[in-house]
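Quick start: read one record
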Amino acid sequence: MRRNTLLIDADDTLWENNVFFEKLIEDFITLVESCGFTRAYVRHILNETERKNIRQYGYGVRSFGRSLEETYIKLAEHLAKREVLAQIHTRVVDLERTPPKILDGVPETLAYLTERHRLILFTKGEPEDPRMDDWQQPAQRHQPRHADRPERRVHPTPAHLAART
């Protein structure tokens, strides 16, 4: 049987990931509301900062954390507090340690597909994400390439995915 190559968008297709970022954004906005800005304005500034940082640092938790910190400093200006920056940093570290929530049926589906096809999973996550270190063949993980970061492939197994659910 001829094996096809299947490209799969992994983030929020195979696992839930964005919900954790959105929760942190809501918590961040609540934290910086004391600066006197509306929630909508804080989100607007955060979005602008993220767009700028994605171009320079790519996607992922670390770039996102940098955007949160820069947004806080921009909004708080001279009233910025180290304690608040430390809180933001702690929340970003927690987010980085939070494994994505594998969606129902994904391990079984990947097991079925890997018997018949070559799989390539695409993700916007960090190329050196420690949560991906022990993933092995047969699926390959790709990340959009950035000039300042080498491409890295990580190979998850369906069994590994099953162990994470």
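The first helix runs from residue 18 to 32.
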